[in-house]
Design a protein that fits this description.
heterodimer, A: 289 residues, mainly alpha, MetI-like fold, flat, B: 248 residues, alpha/beta, 6-stranded mixed beta sheet, 9 helices, 25% strand, globular
Chain lengths: 289, 248
């Protein structure tokens, strides 16, 4: 009946045409109101900023286009350091965090001391400020003057960031593992899988999939927080900007650096939002499994 | 016929609630034992104890004459010989139907992946699910998911199949497609212990029906004996209530 000739020959009734016309008028009116309101508010804001007595100084100090263009290559080279640090650090964070999460969720009696140590580790590095850890590792370790220990600030800075972020990420992964319903474990165990096999083939794949959005969020934070290693003298984007700014007392390099970070983090967070939306839509369709 | 499964004075309580009260049960090879009783009468707990998902408080459980309630025994070894199907299917949502079925044969029983897939396809074809092999569980209807779950537990050739209210989470129109598989398995001579609320189905497959009440088997016998002419007042009362609910 749906495909019958009646359906094909259907044309909207005059009442429906009236309704559509009314809806069009309403939306046109709303569009006009939104446009006028936006122009008024943004225009007022723009005028206020431009005509304010301090704007000329602000523009010269923070938004010096020529100077910005001049320092861009230096800051960009610094940003490459941040990106490298994020990826190399990210790899070690993933490995250590996964180990910590697995140790903390296992019930194996042989691992009891490791479980205790892992808990202590997470408590300490999740609770202490990252900047403090960077200072401790970056300046403290070279002060030991122990043979075999590096005094390379990039390496030490990365180690400090990895130490802290491993604790954060371990907790995210652990929460994912705990979120898998016990019935999944029961099904796997009753098929004869050992607890290790159950973790590897059944629990972990589902857990990781579930925590991908928060993990991506942590990656964005990681990228930003690599800027903190500049305090050790690593020439990253922040440090490169600082060097230039302190030389000229013009703060445009900081703004350039900030814009470069935003160019990466904003698209990345938009992407994460999409991933979260998609995964929550999928979870809902999965129902009560 | 030899005894495949033997439960002797099994006792299990959760906190202060006694769920299994010195319960004894013998399951012979190639027979189907049907457990009936109200919710909370201990049917599911009994099955979970057999599968060692729960540790019993007292008594003994024997599988092929070996005591599996011995704490020194390998639970993984025992579970390899038992198949369990759950009320809520418990398929692995991140694996396709074929991967769900072949996981245990490949990883636990060491069967070559190609061979495991071949055997799984034979089972899927037999139960009209061959076209679903590469689908993920959430694409399947409840009845299809439960049939896959049964096939998954069959794929390891269990000595005993434990079925825990496998149709309770299903739409009434989907119940029969699942029960027909169990009828086929009964015909094949599979040893089974089932907890169910489907009395008509119990009549068809049961060699023995056990009525559980407060952790005890109050009445046992053939389906005709227990379901048609129950002796115990509580059995009569339970069957009357089931009848009123339109399930007999």
């Amino acid at each position: 009946m749906l495909n019958g000739p009646d359906q094909q020959a259907w044309s909207p009734s005059s009442r429906e045409l009236e309704r559509r016309n009314a809806r069009r008028q309403i939306s046109r009116k709303q569009f006009t109101i939104a446009g006028i309101s936006s122009v008024l508010v943004l225009g007022a804001l723009y005028t206020l900023i431009i005509t304010s007595p301090g704007w000329r100084v602000v523009k010269a100090t923070f938004f010096d286009l020529d100077y910005g263009r001049e320092v861009l290559p230096t800051v960009l080279r610094g940003l490459v350091v941040n990106i490298q640090l994020s990826f190399i650090g990210g790899f070690f964070i993933a490995v250590i965090a996964l180990s910590l999460a697995l140790i903390r969720t296992t019930k194996s009696p042989a691992l009891t001391p490791f479980r205790f140590l892992a808990t202590a580790y997470v408590d300490i590095f999740r609770g202490a400020p990252l900047l403090l850890i960077i200072l401790l590792v970056g300046f403290g370790v070279p002060a030991l003057r122990l043979a075999g220990l590096t005094s390379n600030v990039i390496v030490l800075g990365t180690v400090a960031v990895v130490l802290t972020y491993s604790a954060y990420v371990a907790e995210v992964i652990r929460s994912g593992i705990m979120s898998i319903h016990p019935s999944q474990r029961a099904a796997a165990r009753s098929l004869g899988l050992t607890s290790g096999q159950t973790m590897r083939f059944v629990v972990l794949p589902q857990a990781i999939k579930r925590v991908i959005p928060p993990l991506l969020n942590d990656f964005v934070s990681l990228l930003k927080d690599t800027g903190l290693v500049s305090i050790l003298g690593v020439t990253d984007a922040v440090r490169a900007a600082q060097i230039n700014a302190s030389r000229t007392f013009n703060y445009t390099p900081y703004v350039v650096s900030a814009i470069l970070f935003l160019l990466i983090t904003i698209p990345l967070t938009r992407y994460i939002d999409r991933v979260i939306r998609r995964s929550s839509a999928k979870q809902n369709s999965e129902g009560a499994i | 016929m030899s005894n495949v499964l033997e439960l002797v004075n099994v006792r299990k309580s959760f906190d202060s609630e006694l769920v299994l009260n010195d319960l004894s049960l013998t399951v012979k090879e190639h027979t189907a034992t049907v457990l009936i009783g109200a919710s909370g009468s201990g049917k599911s707990t009994l099955l979970r104890c057999i599968n060692l998902l729960e540790t019993i408080d007292d008594g003994q459980i024997f599988l092929d004459g070996q005591e599996i309630s011995d704490p020194l025994i390998s639970v993984d070894e025992v579970r390899r010989k038992l198949g369990m199907v759950f009320q809520s299917f418990n398929l692995f949502p991140h694996k396709t139907v074929l991967e769900n079925i072949t996981l245990s044969p490949i990883k636990v029983h060491g069967i070559a992946p190609d061979q495991a897939r071949e055997q799984a396809m034979v089972l899927l074809k037999r139960f009209d699910l061959a076209d679903k092999a590469d689908q993920y569980p959430d694409r399947l209807s409840g009845g299809q998911q439960q049939r896959v779950a049964i096939i998954r537990s069959l794929a390891v050739n269990p000595r005993v199949l434990l079925l825990d209210e496998i149709t309770s989470a299903l739409d009434p129109v989907l119940v029969n497609e699942v029960l027909s598989i169990v009828r086929d398995l009964k015909h094949d001579g599979m040893t089974m212990v089932l907890a169910t609320h489907e009395m008509g189905f119990a009549t068809q497959v049961a060699d023995e029906v056990c009525f559980l009440e407060s952790g005890l088997i109050l009445e046992r016998g053939s389906a005709d004996q227990v379901l048609k002419s129950p002796q115990h007042a509580k059995t009569k009362d339970f069957l009357k209530r089931v009848h009123e609910a339109g399930r007999l």
